[in-house]
Amino acid sequence: GLVVGIPVVIALGGLLWRLLAEQLRVVAEQDIPTVAILAYAGAGALLAILLTAVPARIAARTPAALVLTQE
Questions:
Q1: Are the beta carbons of 6 and 37 closer than 8 angstroms?
Q2: Residue 25 falls in which region: left (phi positive, over 0), alpha (psi -120 to 50) or beta
Q3: How far apart are CA 3 and CA 42, in angstroms?
Q4: Is 20 within 8 Å of 30 (Cβ atoms)?
Q5: 14: CB partners within 8 A, 6+ apart
Q6: Is the sign of the CA dihedral 60, 64, 70, 71 positive or negative?
Q7: Number of C-beta neighbours around residue 28 at 10 A
Q8: Which of 21, 43, 61, 70 is geometrically suited to a Cys-Cys bond with 28, CB 3.0 to 4.6 A?
Q9: What is the pTM assigned to this prediction?
Q10: For the CA atoms of 5, 10, 11, 13, what is the dihedral angle to 10 degrees?
């Protein structure tokens, strides 16, 4: 999702800004912080992995037969 979503949003946002800037007759110069965007995306992915690691490990150690007999 991030691999496709971030570039699409950046491109769409840039296009919309240029259209709005033309209507307002202002300078349509953009400065996109690419490094910051990539850093936030990477940090978000890492945080998601870390937050799901403990529940995944607990689920992996629970025997399936034990869970199924409790239903």
A1: yes
A2: left
A3: 11
A4: no
A5: 30, 32
A6: positive
A7: 13
A8: 21
A9: 0.52
A10: 120
Structure tokens given for 51: 């937050």
pLDDT at 49: 94
Is 90 exceeded by the pLDDT of residue 24? yes
Q: State residue 5's pLDDT score.
A: 86
| Model confidence pLDDT, tens digit, residues 46-63 | 999 999 999 999 989 988
14, 21 contact by CB (below 8 A): no
Place of tokens 């992915």: 45
> What distance lies between CA 40 and its chain's CA centroid?
8
